[in-house]
Amino acid sequence: MYRVFFFLLGFGFMVIGFTYIVLYLNLLTMGYNFIDYLGYIFTRIECLFSLVGFGIVSLVILLSGRHHNDLYI
């Protein structure tokens, strides 16, 4: 049950972060170049939610709650 909660939490963070990243693409039409755009989105906390969410989802998927003998070499 905890894994489902953290998976959904991470997925929600990724949706929030990527939504803002796409919304901030409008800065490119206002004269920003791509390097300035990347610098801007890495300083915004709502865009960093995508990285946090990706990390949470990756940990939930990689760290299973069960230990299988065939996974250990």
Task: Please summarize what this structure is.
The chain has 73 residues and is an all-alpha fold. 66% of the residues lie in helices and 0% in strands.
Task: Based on the model shown, name its key terms.
73 residues; 3 helices; mainly alpha
Question: Would you give an account of this structure?
Answer:
By secondary structure, the chain is mostly helical. Helix content is 66%, strand content 0%. The chain contains three helices and no strands. The protein has helices at 2-23, 34-41, 45-62. The model has no long low-confidence stretch (mean pLDDT 88).
What topology does this entry show?
Layout: H1 2-23, H2 34-41, H3 45-62
Helix pairs in contact: 1-3
- What's the SSE pattern? HHH
How many distinct beta strands? 0
> What composes the largest sheet?
none
Report the C-alpha radius of gyration, rounded: 17 Å
Question: N-to-C terminal Cα separation, in Å?
Answer: 29 Å
Mean pLDDT: 88
Helix content: 55-70%
User: Strand pairing plus helix content: what structural class?
Assistant: mainly alpha
Segments where pLDDT lies below 50 for 5+ residues?
Answer: none
Count helical runs. 3
Share in β-strands: under 5%
Principal-axis shape equals: elongated
